[in-house]
Amino acid sequence: MIPALLAIAAAFCAYIQWGDEIPIPNFDKDINKKEAKYIHDVNKKAEKEKFERAKLNRNPSGYMTVEEYELLSIPKDRMTVEVDIPKFTIPADMIYVPQPSYKIVRYNNPPGSPEIELSKTFYQKRQQNAQGIVSPDFTKLIYPAIYYYPNSGSTACDLFVINLEEAKSNIDKILTANTIHKLSDPILSTDKTNDNYYTFRTLTPIDFNPDGSKLLVKEKIGNSRDGIWKTTPVVYDFSTGVSYDLIEVRDAIIYYWKENKDLNLDDKRWDVYPLGFAADDPDWVIVNAVAYTGDTPVNLGTWKVNTKGEQSRLITFTNSEVQVSMNGYKLVKDGIVPSAITEKEQKELEKIEKAKAKQKEKADKEEVKALEKSYKAKIKEMDAEFKESQKDYNLRKKIQGSTSGDEVLIKYKEIKAEQEAKKQQQLEKQKEKELKALEKQKQKEEKKRQKELEKSNN
Question: What is the pTM of this model?
Answer without folding.
Answer: 0.63
